[in-house]
Amino acid sequence: MMMTQQHRESSSESINKHFDAGKYVRYTAEQVEALERVYAECPKPSSLRRQQLIRECPILSNIEPKQIKVWFQNRRCREKQRKEASRLQTVNRKLTAMNKLLMEENDRLQKQVSHLVCENGYMRQQLQSASAANTDASCESVVTTPQHSLRDANNPAGLLSIAEETLAEFLSKATGTAVDWVQMPGMKPGPDSVGIFAISHSCSGVAARACGLVSLEPTKIAEILKDRPSWFRDCRSLEVFTMFPAGNGGTIELIYTQIYAPTTLAPARDFWTLRYTTSLDNGSLVVCERSLSGSGAGPNAAAASQFVRAEILPSGYLIRPCEGGGSIIHIVDHLNLEAWSVPEVLRPLYESSKGVAQKMTIAALRYIRQIAQETSGEVVYGLGRQPAVLRTFSQRLSRGFNDAVNGFNDNGWSIMNCDGAEDVIVAVNSTKNLCATSSLSTSLSLVGGILCAKASMLLQNVPPAVLVRFLREHRSEWADFNVDAYSAAALKASSFAYPGMRPTRFTGSQIIMPLGHTIEHEEMLEVIRLEGHSLAQEDAFVSRDIHLLQICSGIDDNAVGACSELVFAPIDEMFPDDAPLLPSGFRIIPLDAKSCDTRDNLTRHRTLDLTSSLEVGPATKQGSGDASSCHNMRSVLTIAFQFPFENSLLDNIAAMARQYVRSVISSVQRVAMAISPSGLSPTAGPKLSSGSPEALTLAQWICQSYSYHLGTELLRTDSDGGDSVLKSLWHHPDAILCCSLKSLPVFIFANQAGLDMLETTLVALQDITLDKIFDETGRKVLFSEFAKIMEQGFGCLPAGICMSTMGRHISYEQAIAWKVLAAEEGTVHCLAFSFVNWSFV
């Protein structure tokens, strides 16, 4: 009996001791302060650190180490909950604003439906009546903008009347039914999208509209958007000639704007407009603009001789402040670009609302969001450079390339005498100086000047994004390293500038170092290092590396109407922020694609010289008609390369430049033939030919080896037949890649998900080595598991991080590796990887 009682007492003491160790402890203010100081330095202290804390802080001596551990766990949990609550509040504010925006859009669409129903009834009544002859197009939803005479623009009262009328018409487009808006293809609205985008349907001119939420105040947004050259890359200049105040604290401005031509075979555009800035009664800020009549309005006619006067119909920005901060912005761009003034083959560029949407409307909203993220500190700097500096580099590269393509007389350009062939235009600028600033450290004085060789050509059935990606990733396929070295040497005060340059061997290797990118990765700024070595024996071990500053844009295949560009300029390895730039590069602008049900009528000629197509005359229309009966994806490629020269070497440099551009054109044509789909629609599936025995056989080997090693099927059981296996493997949701079993394994195959993950193409895939896609941890895991994989035939790698060719990080839940066996021979053909549930970080 006594033993039982003692056992109960010892059990009770043990239980009480257990509860004392884990009971809730009420900390004093001094204790909390001491713990908070440690938490600020180390949120997760080790056991030794906690014991040291108790020894060093007498006020914590009465607290058990386990209770200290619990306090830090609770503190980390509270911090996580606080951050999550803050994030959810931000998301909730965005969703609330987006919901309000969508409700307004829904109301506008309902009004538009009612308007169209009324129009339909009116048309039926007119068709059924005897006076059908009196029917005209007045009921169509076409915005007709009256031209205002210069007499009205000569007095403030007349200008104010025009401004108020412009405001009313702009608001009817931004929030009303004055234009039939249809959703921009490939731009679905949602909480993660930049905004809601639409283009005009059956409207005079070309028009685009955007709505979005931006975390900036209205006045800041208006200030940014009014500075059009800062965000609209095609804007050469904007001059305010007159400005005077209007009612409601607003202003009226008379503005002259010049717009670059996108290609060498079309004239540039200019605008003479009235811009009206005012506030509405509901607190919204409006900036609206329209053209004033008179082709001679603006600066003197001589300055505008290289321009075609185009028209801005009532357009602008409606900026409404949000309750929780930020603004909701409506953007409308409505233009008449006078398509009659360009060759017929180019008219789709000037009649496409999608092109206006990508270049102006969407670009404006993206730029504002970029500034907002930079202001909030969300943007990571590249190589220590501030975001504003990186933006300036991109703008200077784009502007320098546009100047070269257009070759304006007032900028010092003049055409050299041609050699009889019109395929390459050579222009000279003896007044141009590469000096970006007055700083002596960056100035470059040239005895001669700058020479530009440029050309345009028509591409057929060549996706612009794919071509630009290839040109970016495979520079050695089209570029001459010694020509790059010549341009680079001109930037240095050395004995290697101009004549007597020492011969250099290009190693074939280029290293891409990312500097920065826009928030949606539609444009990337990077430094390219081309590795070279001198061929001279005395300098055999001297590096002759060349560095290029480069922007690459438009590489998203789903961006409808987007222009693809690759523009670069030689720089020093440690280039300053104001380094002189001499840009060269490529621009590919898609024409409206046309489609058909048959594939047999596809043209076999993938590239054509655009100048020869212009000489066809009436036959051009016939070709266009043929194109409309089949799938015919067309685009215009513009090439421009700039070279410095000395006066004594002008003729030699001109001959070299002309020949070099012709060789680049030949290389691009060869590349275009290689990457052009062979008789298949771009949406038909894999770029591999379905009849290719190599592709079919490899797909069967991959699936059979997976089943043999892992005991389960890689594909669904209904995938019978080689063609079906290849198709199912190509569309498999996991990224499946195969690499060779060499001393330096390179990838030899990838399905669509694999190409998307690596952000590359089948052509460029074979230049990617296995070790390049894994981070340091991933490489260690792979090396440790490699022997096991080769011994048992397969292995599973844990979740990790890998990297795309664009430098983006990718997370995956698991990676499965297995040996692919050649069925007939039983030998190991390659090593396959399947990255499960991958996503960009």
**Helix content estimate:** 25-40%
| Mean pLDDT metric | 77
Oligomer: single chain
E-strand count: 29
Number of domains: 4
The CATH topology of the largest domain corresponds to Alpha-D-Glucose-1,6-Bisphosphate, Chain A, domain 4
Number of helical segments with 4 or more residues: 21
Which key phrases capture this entry?
841 residues; Alpha-D-Glucose-1,6-Bisphosphate, Chain A, domain 4; eleven-stranded mixed beta sheet; ten-stranded antiparallel beta sheet; 24% strand
Can you describe this structure?
The longest helix is centred in the N-terminal third of the chain and has 64 residues, at 65-128. The chain has 21 helices and 29 strands. The chain folds into four domains: 37-116, no CATH class; 156-379, 2-Layer Sandwich (Alpha-D-Glucose-1,6-Bisphosphate, Chain A, domain 4); 388-431 and 447-492 and 510-531 and 545-593 and 632-675, Alpha-D-Glucose-1,6-Bisphosphate, Chain A, domain 4, CATH 3.30.530; 693-840, PAS domain (Beta-Lactamase, 2-Layer Sandwich). The protein has 841 residues and is α+β, with helices and mostly antiparallel strands. Helix 11 (464-473) packs across helix 15 (650-675) and helix 16 (693-710) packs across helix 17. Strands 1, 2, 3, 4, 5, 6, 7, 8, 9, 10 and 11 form an eleven-stranded mixed beta sheet that branches. Strands 12, 13, 14, 15, 16, 17, 18, 19, 20 and 21 form a ten-stranded antiparallel beta sheet that branches. A five-stranded antiparallel beta sheet has the order 23-22-28-27-24, with helices on both faces. Strand 2 and strand 3 form a beta hairpin. Keywords: Coiled coil, Differentiation, DNA-binding, Homeobox, Nucleus, Transcription, Transcription regulation.
